[in-house]
Structure formats: C-alpha cells, structure tokens
C-alpha cells in the first residue's frame, strides 16, 4: 500500500476512534434530563441557577472558525451577560416542547440570536440589545413589558460599532460590513418603540417584575443602548438578579438588590423589562415562506395528539403544503389561525 495513502487512512481511523464528544451537547442534555417542566418564567430561573459558577468570558461568539465565517456558536462552558440570557431563554423554550432535545435547543438559539432567525453574515447577528429586543418581540420570543410597568420613552442613539469598527475584527476586515452596521444603527435610532424605567423609579415599579423576567440595564455611555443583561430573581425577600458578572468572573446571584446595583453604577440610567413567551406555531413554521397579504392559511389537526400533525392548505397558486411537527408544546389547547406578509401565523392566544 502506498505509504502516503496508509498515513491518510490511519489518520482518519484515529480521528473517528478518538473523536471528542461535544461538551456543550452534554451540558444541554444534562439540563434537559434534570430540569422540571414548568411555566417559562420558572424555567428561566431554573436555567439561570443551573449555570451558577460558570466562568465569565467575553467574546466567545467571535473566536475560532466563527472569526472568519459567521455561524452559530454554542458555548455553555463560558458565558457573558448576553449569552447567559440567550442560552437560558433557548433552554427554557426548549423545555416547553413535548420532546425537548439538543437539536431543538440549537434551532431555538439560532432563532433568538439572529435577525429573523436566519444566519446571513456578521451583520445578521443582533449585536445591539435594543435591536435584539425589537426582533425577538416581533418573533414572539419575548414581550417588552416596560411600558406596561410604567416606563418612559427611551430614545436610542447607537453608533458605537460603526464609530469604533477597528475594535471589532469582523468590521475592521470588511468595510461593507461597517456600512451595513451603520444602516442597522440608523434603523434602531429611527424607531419610536422603546421605553425604560429610570433608576429613581425602580422602587415603585419593582413589585410588578416577575421571576425570570429579563432585565436590560440602559446606559449613558455615548453610542450604546444597553450595558448589561440579567435574569430577574426574587431572593431572600428582595429583587435581585442572576447574571454573568465581569467583576466576579462567573455567573452569580447578585448580592445587592436591583435598586442598589443600579444606584451604584454612575452610567446606569435605568432598566428595560422583558418577559419570555412560550413557543407558538409561528416559531416552527419556516419564516422563509413568504405569502402575499391576500393569502390565508387554514390549520387543521389530526392524530391522537391534536397538535402532532398539521395540514396547511395555502391559497397561493393552488399549492398545498403539509407540515408534520414533532415535539410541539403539550400546553396547546386551541389554535387561532391567520396570515402574514412575512410568514404564516398561528398561536394559542
């Protein structure tokens, strides 16, 4: 046998034999097997507590292969404030499924992290938290309850990334991406949809904040919108939060109350409050399916489980498509149907 061919074959056999297991899959599966199915607010706290003591590491989404080509990064061994919240949210929503698994978690994480749930280069990632809020509220992943809690108008004025592009390897290497980020910033700044609770008013509003809500800390730092994220947690009769702390260098239950934490940070101007939402049918129907406003969808169910098989006749050039969904939430009792110019819409509300 040719010596070079032998070496190649030997290398392939060794790679297959000694391939390392995926540690992040193992963490997800451990959580899914040990967690208790609960309401999503309880799930959020359960997931956040699961990550206590996990090391704080910034920039994990821009290391290795992902530094060159944008792809979904799953890293539950090292977390920053945003990746902690994203992973807790993805795990909590995955637990709402009747058959939760790693693939569902991965799909959910992608749906949360990227604009419209689609990876299309570095700029498709939701870098600014206000953009993350806008997109995920539109997808039905979270509900921004800040206004309902008595919030005041918040005017976004972001430009930090385009103004400091040299600090971001992706942007420093791609002038087109800098221009695209600048357009994203313009879109964020043009929105009139954001509210915040000034830190001097948190005391009178905090009773309405629930366990598992997502707390976003607004900032006075020029060019930025949000400086930190955390999971709200009522602990020892005070409202605090669970977060990936850059000071403690790990995930912790913050020892101070939410109010004391905000008051101690000079640049913190207040908070936004987001409430996680359970999965709905629209999360599972591909959003790449585009329908005109004149189209409509009728959802019917069959089988032992009323939500296990869904047939969707679509009045679009006579086509009829069938979707067989596996692992839908067990909480589905009734279904309303509708249509959207973006994708089919159906929900339990």
Descriptive overview:
The protein is α+β, with helices and mostly antiparallel strands and 349 residues long. The protein has 2 domains: 23-276, Putative xylanase like domain (Putative xylanase fold); 280-349, no CATH class. It is built from 12 helices and 13 strands. A hairpin with a 6-residue loop joins strand 10 (309-313) and strand 11. Helix 3 (40-50) crosses helix 4 (81-94) and helix 4 crosses helix 5. It is globular.
Based on the model shown, name its key terms.
alpha+beta, 3-stranded antiparallel β-sheet, 8-stranded antiparallel β-sheet, Putative xylanase fold, 349 residues, 19% strand, 32% helix, 13 strands, disordered C terminus
For this structure, the CATH topology of the largest domain is: Putative xylanase fold
Net shape: globular
Cα-atom Rg, whole angstroms?
Answer: 22 Å
CATH C-level category of the largest domain:
Mainly Alpha
Kindly state the mean pLDDT as a whole number? 82
Distance between the termini: 67 Å
The low-pLDDT segments are 285-349
Number of separate structural domains: 2
Query: Helix content range of the residues, please?
Result: 25-40%
**CATH superfamily of the largest domain, called what?**
Putative xylanase like domain
User: What is the makeup of the main sheet?
Assistant: 8 strands, antiparallel
Give a quick precis of the structure:
The protein is α+β, with helices and mostly antiparallel strands and 349 residues long. The protein contains twelve helices and 13 strands.
């Amino acid at each position: 046998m040719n010596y070079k061919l032998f070496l190649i074959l030997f290398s392939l056999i060794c790679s297959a034999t000694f391939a390392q297991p995926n540690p992040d899959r193992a963490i997800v599966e451990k959580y899914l097997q040990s967690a208790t199915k609960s309401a999503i607010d309880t799930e959020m706290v359960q997931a956040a507590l699961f990550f206590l003591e996990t090391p704080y590491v910034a920039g994990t989404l821009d290391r290795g292969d992902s530094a060159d080509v944008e792809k979904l990064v799953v890293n539950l061994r090292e977390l920053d404030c945003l990746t902690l919240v994203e992973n807790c949210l993805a795990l909590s929503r995955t637990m709402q499924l009747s058959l939760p698994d790693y693939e569902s978690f991965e799909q959910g994480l992608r749906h949360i992290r990227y604009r419209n749930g689609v990876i299309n280069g570095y700029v498709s990632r939701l870098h600014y938290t206000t953009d993350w809020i806008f997109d995920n509220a539109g997808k039905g992943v979270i509900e921004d309850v800040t206004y309902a809690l008595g919030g005041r108008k918040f005017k976004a004025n972001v430009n930090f990334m385009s103004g400091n592009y040299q600090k971001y390897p992706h942007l420093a290497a791609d002038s087109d991406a800098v221009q695209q980020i600048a357009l994203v910033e313009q879109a964020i700044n043009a929105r009139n949809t954001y509210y915040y609770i000034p830190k001097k008013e948190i005391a009178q509003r905090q009773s309405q904040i629930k366990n598992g809500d997502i707390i976003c800390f607004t900032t006075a730092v020029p060019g930025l919108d949000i400086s930190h994220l955390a999971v709200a947690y009522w602990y020892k009769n005070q409202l605090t939060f669970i977060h990936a702390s850059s000071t403690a260098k790990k995930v912790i239950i913050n020892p101070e109350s939410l109010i004391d934490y905000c008051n101690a940070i000079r640049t913190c101007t207040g908070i936004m409050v987001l409430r996680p939402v359970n999965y709905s049918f629209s999360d599972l129907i591909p959003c790449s399916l585009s329908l005109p406003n004149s189209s409509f969808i009728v959802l019917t169910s069959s089988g032992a489980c009323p939500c296990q098989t869904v047939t969707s006749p679509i009045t679009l050039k006579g086509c009829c498509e069938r979707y067989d969904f596996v692992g839908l939430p067990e909480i589905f009792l009734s279904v309303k149907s509708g249509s959207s110019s973006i994708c089919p819409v159906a929900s339990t509300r």
